[in-house]
Amino acid sequence: MATDTDVLVLGGGSTGCGIARDLAMRGLEVTLLERGTLTDGTTGRMHGLLHSGGRYAVSDQASARECIEENRILREIAGHCVEETGGLFVKRPEDSDAYFQEKLEGCRECDIPATVLSGREAREIEPYLATDVERAIEVPDAAVDPFRLCVANAMDATAHGARIETHAEVIDLLRDGDDVFGVTVRHGAGPGKRTDVPTGTVEEITADYVVNATGAWAGAIAGMADLEVEVRPSKGVMTIMNVRQVDTVINRCRPKGDADIIVPHETTAILGTTDEEVDDPDDYPEERWEVDAMIDTLAELVPILREARTIRSFWGVRPLYEPPETGTTDPTDITREFFLLDHADRDGVSGITSIVGGKLTTYRAMAEAISDHVCAELGVNASCETADEPLPGSERLETLEAAMDEFGLRSPVARRSSQRLGSRTREVLERYDPNPVICQCEGVTRAEVQDAIAQSGSDLNAVRIRTRASMGNCQGGFCCQELACELHPAYDAETVRDAFDELFEERWKGQRHALWGEQLSQAMLTYALHTTTMNRDGDPAGDSQAIDYAAFDGGR
Amino acid sequence: MSDADNPTDDASDEFEPIQVFPEAEEMDLRPGADNCYKCSTCDTNCPVAEVDDEFPGPKFQGPEQWRLKRQDDHDIDESVMKCSNCMRCDSACPSSVPLSQMHNTARGEYVENHMSKFSREYVRNRILANYRRLAPLAATFPRTANFVMGLSITRWLGEKTLGITSEREFPAFATETFRDWWRKRGGAKVQNEDQKIAYFHGCYSNYNTPEVAKALVRVYEHFGYEVLVPPQSCSGTPMFANGMLEDARRAAETNVRELAAALEDGADVIASCSSCSMSIRQEYPELFDFEDTEDVAANTWDALEYLRVHEDLEGELEGASVEGFDDFAYHAPCHARNQGLDGQTVELLDVIDGVDAHDVGDSCSGISGTYGWKAENYETSMKIGEEMFDHMDTADAETGLTECPTCSMQMEHGTGYEIRHPLEVLEAALFSDRPETA
Amino acid sequence: MAIEDDVLVIGGGLAGATAALAAAERDVRVRLVTYKQSTLRHASGLIDVLGYAPTDDGPLTNPYDALESLPDSHPYRLVGEAAIRKALAFFDELAGAAYAGSHTDANALVPTAAGTIKPTARYPTATAPGLASDRRDVLLVGFETLPGFDAPLAAAHLEAAGVPFDVRGATCSFPGIRRDDAKVTRYAHLLDVDEAIAVDAGEIGVRAALIEAVEGHLEGEARVGFPALLGDEHADEVRTDLADGLGVDVFEVPMGPPSLPGIRLEDLLYDALEDAGVRVTSGVPVVEYETAGASEDRIDHVVVDRNGAQVPHRATQYVLATGGLVGKGVQSERQRVYEPIFDCHVSHADDRYEWFVDGVFDEQPYARFGLSADGELRPLDADGKPEFRNLRAAGSVLGGYDYAAEKSGSGVSLATGYVAGTHAGEAVDEVIR
Fold it and tell me: Which of A256, A374, B253, B310 is the most buried if burial means most Cβ atoms within 10 Å?
């Protein structure tokens, strides 16, 4: 039996969630399908920079203009996802003066506010900057939490009647002649919230229109309907520091190159990145040299990075696209603009459009463009409101109380909670008493964890991205167990066990790239705690081989 | 790193004055959180968190609070004022997190930004922290001062107006300060170009227990050292504990300058109070960057430790006996423990015939300098001390022994024991006659 | 002038304390220098000897049966079964009534806070009534403010593990705890001193209040398990009071870090060190060493850093028991793994991407980092020769075994500490000073 919807949005990244919100606000019935957890693809694997556009002010001015425009909008509608850090393009002695000048002029041409600072002024803002940094350009870069942003879009879409399905993998596009009319989806066996469909089932969903917003995976999805989309996936590493060495976005002011940006992100600083084309966005090498390059090259800008602790590294795949005849060889040179590929125009197949390219900063504009297109196709007359309506959590931010004594939380925990929850702070925090801290590294309390569980079910990775629990220096060593406990009794012991295992494995995955010094000690402590004190590796629960209890010491 | 280490040869840019010190004005201790692996060993060593759950423990106050900070976040949880600055977390941490530095800095920020300078608490803390400034007045009229301080009405007033607990008796002021004695004595009796020490006596042995300071002089002169007594200010310990970092900075500046001059003169710095030596050795380099701070820190020693390493102290004490002392109940102050000095006194006294020193365990005495003087902390302070009191009560000893002046107040207050300093025992062992008094 | 002793043990964990105590069995002067507090405070307080062997799937019933299956470089193979047994006997003597399990070679299965069970050879008396081979029904009790131990979840997990008894869980609030972030030492202290707390009808001791909070949850179970925070100094008294009040056996489920059972074990060891006359210097690191004159293979003295002052310590024999990656006796950088005091050889792959494997619980190379040693536990250099004639190593600074996967941590620390300390003590006389 097939279910039907107006529009099917494929992909639960920022673009997909943005589209779902936009269309739902325009009154359409929307279903969004995501293979894993929201943000699992490229959105959750970026450095969290809300571009001022300065980065593209020389090479790609169209993108730069788009960025500054959206940057201004997101500060308004997503205040609780954005930290106004400001950004610096810093110049070392060996970096070109001419390029510095070009950058400055480029910014001005694109309407990006830009101020020149002396090295000393830059160091007053960021004391850990290298003493030989000569000059800097100050621009309105900011830090954005992609998880929170994406989830807020999804929450609002749901509030407007959209159906959001995670762990739902599209296994086929339904095509009848020259018309795509739906998908076949397999609902995953992993943990997660599936209120509509039992786990493990295959479902057909038909729709008036299908939007392929799967980014780097757009080619694979289009291929299911024998359509060709030449995405040029390009990988980049991001290395996460344990603490913020800087509170301002630091860019290296030079034309291009790996390892040229440091983004302060929540409690951490993220070093980025590399740019290497890959064949398969699901399978590419994650290499040591990339991590080493982040540390060694960026230490030229911020020398204490050389000795500082990194807690993990991760890779993301950019969904780069350029029209087939452009033929750019170096992925760094491929435009960051987005493209709307209407398969009716392009391939003569109606009912589906793919959206590729672009970047998180412009997700809303991309969503607006494709929503306009869909509405035109479906003959719906409704205008876009996403640039004016704040996202859930960002309403009335100015009234957010700084003093949160009544929740009995210590001030930094209260502060961090309100930075994450925005205008939802009160409704979330007043729900639990006692309300102990579950994740000490990030200051996440039981109330916030329970709020996330209410949204996302037993998927602890989904809880993680909503709360930041387990994303601090112990990388879940001390709180995976606590988080799993919070699932009980709403979920049974077996579900809790699976959810724990999945989170624990996920946390280990990224840490492997940070295994030296303090983080290796941390990893050993985590390993010892879970294998020795808890004996998780020898856990007989669910094991077919029964233990002969009587053969062991009975104590008496 | 300073510009001096890594000069920029950029001439094209606008003029920048040459800098001697790094530009960071405020202490950013977030990188210190890199060492923390969340094991909570610090918490299990915190004597305050054990008896008072309003205090969330050193891990939270230290690496967690710092890690959760952004440059423009200035709120510090007020619970940091409950930290007694015993610094046990420092020596506990298996991963070398600079916990006490984080606490000192956070406390300083809290007092600076969030405590009203007109509040009773601030005024009281300022008075307690600046004992050094009040003591000279009292010492000028010691008998009157002792009389007035001892009046119950004074203590009652102290509690009502200032929040200084009325449960405690103020320490008595000596009729003659150590420095007066030293001056009258005509200074050093031994001259020795090759072996000199600069004695950092601190406030307490100057104003309250000059017998300890005199013992130090006699002992060091016995070993042939020339003793210098340089001008000095308070070590800063009570100021750190009360978040009065500016007061501490001024005091430290004087001390570093004077002690560096003594080093220049060929002397090593010796302290008889374990908190004074702790402050100079650890807190100065952690918090201040005057010229010579590191040098002074690296050449400052505890009185017994120095003799032990530089002289054959054990050989000298072998077979010695002391009169006038019975067995001791010894408490190692937290600040001695942090310097690796916890076992030293018991080891040395073991060598002397006729006395035994019984270690009364590794708990904190609970007073932690000015902490236990505050009315709101009195009860907590006594709860922390309970374990030590129990052990002292059951110890087979007649006299208490410790290096720390405020621990000795607490020991006396909690058990009624008379409390002495190890230097006094050492003096008695090295000299058959009675201690020099005139 | 150096501070002189016969044997100098560096490191104050289980291995270091055991080595010092074993050396002190001889008539020699022993000093133990420990920088920071040991990882005992992280550990469960259980004395595991060997819970799993490479050749076996399930938990080992008898650890001694599997010793032969361990690789040659394993510390157990270096010291041999007899030494392991002697070390255990040494510990049993030391621990007295505080530990149980010495009546049999068989492992005991202890329920954990996660609801799994783990094999161990000796366990605190406080844990004894909780063993999983005991068929009596169990009630587990957790507390709302301690999110790491969800008693009903642990109970459900234990049932899934097939334990031969019925087990239920209940969650209460802990009387007298006012803040949600109180430390475990606070809970323990409340019980230790039986602090009076205000209730409707006046005041009541915390122990009585806890009994009141729990008794309503009992449904005929014969034993009740609490997270391991039932007192510190007066733990036995606390447990007895609770057991009497509830009319059932009371036991602790190991927790941590931080771990009260680990802290109690540490106290027990340090009391023993004091009784044995071992001199303890704590809070300061050994930072370097000097060899004796021309002979590069003898350590003459080590240097202890006391907040900047360099204090030499001389002994004739040295034991290195500074721990592994967690205790910081083994440290690492991006390119190397090293032992920081004597720079003893640590074997490891050059490429740090070979220090781990992908499955978190698979055979992890990093878990085996440490020194290799000869039969007397002298650390060996890259060529297999002793680094120094008078240096021995004990505990997790040794490599070649994965204590976490094997559940052998305490056993190896005891056995190697005992052997290294005994050899060091004996060797004092052989050396002309």
Answer: A374
Q: CB–CB of A131/B1 below 8 Å?
A: yes
Q: Tally Cβ neighbours within 10 Å of residue A504.
A: 24
Closest CA to C195 of B416, B379, B361: B379
Parallel, antiparallel, or unpaired for β C196-199 and A163-165?
unpaired
For A376, other C-beta atoms within 10 Å of its C-beta total 10
Taking CB atoms and an 8 Å limit, are B36 and A473 in contact across chains? Answer: yes
Query: What are the residue boundaries of the structural domains of chain C, listed by start?
Result: 3-44+262-432, 110-255
CA distance C428 to chain A (A): 35
CATH superfamily membership of C3-44+262-432 = FAD/NAD(P)-binding domain (3.50.50.60)
Task: Give dist(CA B306, CA B219) in Å, integer.
Answer: 12
Does the beta-carbon distance from B31 to A245 stay under 8 Å? yes
Tell me which chain B residues have a C-beta less than 8 angstroms from the C-beta of A134.
8, 10, 13
Same domain assignment for residues A310 and A347: no
Mind listing the pLDDT tens digit of every residue in chain B (438 residues)? Answer: 333 333 344 434 444 444 443 434 456 788 889 999 999 999 999 999 999 999 999 999 999 999 998 887 888 899 999 998 889 999 899 998 999 999 999 999 899 888 888 888 888 888 888 877 777 777 777 777 777 767 777 777 777 777 888 888 878 889 999 999 999 999 999 999 999 999 999 999 999 999 999 999 999 999 999 999 999 999 999 999 999 999 999 999 999 999 999 999 999 999 999 999 999 999 999 999 899 999 999 999 999 999 999 999 988 888 888 877 888 999 999 999 889 898 899 999 988 888 888 899 888 999 888 888 888 899 999 999 999 999 999 988 889 999 999 999 999 999 999 999 999 999 999 986 544 443
- Whether residue B38 and residue A473 make contact (CB cut-off 8 A), yes or no, is yes
B neighbour chains, 3+ CB pairs within 8 Å: A, C
Which chain B residues are within 8 Å of A130, Cβ to Cβ? Answer: 6
Q: Do A350 and A223 reside in the same domain of the chain?
A: yes
Query: Against a cut of 0.85, is the pTM above it?
Result: yes
Q: Do B67 and A472 touch (CB under 8 A)?
A: yes
Tokens found for residue C209: 């209040």
- Mutation for C interface: B34, B35, B42, B44, most C CBs within 10 A: B44
Residues of chain B contacting residue A83, judged by C-beta atoms under 8 Å apart: 70
Residues 6 or more apart whose Cβ sits within 8 Å of residue B404: B273, B274, B275, B333, B335, B336, B365
Contact A525 C42 (CB under 8 A): yes
